[in-house]
Amino acid sequence: MDSLIVKTITRLLVPFIFLYGIFIISHGHVTPGGGFSGGAFIGGGLILYTIVFGAKQAEKLFPSSVAEWLESGGILFYIAVGLVGLITVDSFLTNIGAGFGIGTPGTLWSAGMIPILMITIGIKVASTFMTLFRGLLEEPR
Amino acid sequence: METILSVVILILLIIAGIAIDRTNDLLVAIIVFSSFSFLMTILWLVLKAPDVALTEAAIGSGITTLLFLAVLSKTERKSL
Question: Residue A16, exposed/middle/buried by CB under 10 A (0-12, 13-18, 19+)?
Fold first, then answer.
């Protein structure tokens, strides 16, 4: 896309979209939202960057090999964290039973493994949307 | 107040849904679908579900529209 206005506004806006996504992810257990919503915001920002600046520039910002690694590694890390509950107590993804708290409103690091899971889901969802959009772009006409 | 807002949004949702079906241009259908999702976002907020509203705003009116537009740019744009 060649429009100067669109390029300038995107360059100003994309960092704030990322910041909002990170806010939603990191506050996922004490406020509305969570890993999926915040990851979708970050993925939307990445797709906006790709549309405006082209696929080559986006490859520098977020290489596709990194996206594939994050996408596959995210869900494996999620399963690994879930297995902690299975090993220490009796069931998958147990939080309270494994000795962690249930979280206090307004306190960021307060809910045991849930913030870690939220960050993992956010990274996975963002890279999944980016991989989806790249796959559609590389498809021949 | 909330009832009036809900009724207005629901009527607009019905209009948008019919418009998506009746339009002849695929690009117009995508844009109206995006506005449908935005109206749904407001309706979720009125129904006190901000969590769903956030997801609807990101997925419904953001990502889905972008993916539809990417597919449309790969096809020949022809009105049905």
Answer: exposed
ipTM: 0.79
A85: exposed, middle or buried (Cβ count in 10 Å: 0-12, 13-18, 19+): buried
Give tens-digit pLDDT for A30-64: 888 888 889 999 999 999 898 888 888 888 888 88
Q: Cα(first)–Cα(last) distance of chain B, in Å?
A: 41
Measure CB to CB from residue B63 to each of A34, A40, A137 and give the nearest one. Answer: A40
> Is the separation of the CB atoms in B63 and A38 below 8 Å?
no
Q: What is the pLDDT of residue B11?
A: 95
Asked if B63 and A32 come within 8 Å (Cβ–Cβ), the reply is no
Q: Which domain holds residue A42?
A: 4-138
The pLDDT value recorded for residue B78 is 62
Task: Compare all CA atoms of chain B with the CA of A126 and give the residue at the minimum distance.
Answer: B63
B18 within domain boundaries: yes
B4 CA to chain A: closest CA distance, Å? Answer: 25
Q: Give chain A's domain count.
A: 1
Residues of A in contact with B51 (CB under 8 A): 32-34, 37
